[in-house]
What does this fold into?
Amino acid sequence: MSAEILVPVSFGELLDKISILQIKSERISDEGKLANVRRELSALEQTWMAHPAAVKDIAKLRAELKAVNEQLWDIEDDIRLKEKAQAFDQGFVDLARSVYLRNDERARIKKAINLALGSAYVEEKSYQDYAQRA
It folds into this structure.
């Protein structure tokens, strides 16, 4: 029996996972965890590079996706520090709100990747509209 499972995913989902693993490989210092991250990153990068869509120029979208995921990483770190200190102040509220704002941006970029590459799968989101209208 194989120790891995293959599932169909959208291009955006795969590239999102790759960007998160790249960030982990840059920021995690524990050697055991890093080995696991690098193994998975290598496998997913090989899968991506073997696909014909990998030759299309979506470098700007990939950079945007990684930047948003880096922001989310930092926000999560900051909000956990606030939680540890039991500091449920305006800064905590601002961080909590920024999570869904960044996740909405992340979803937009993933969808743009899917549409640019003609993905068979396109992730859809459905949330309450929080934008204030004039």
Remarks:
- Helices lie at 11-27, 31-49, 59-84, 90-117.
- The chain has one domain: 11-117.
- Residues 20 and 69 are 7 Å apart (CA to CA).
- The mean pLDDT is 95.
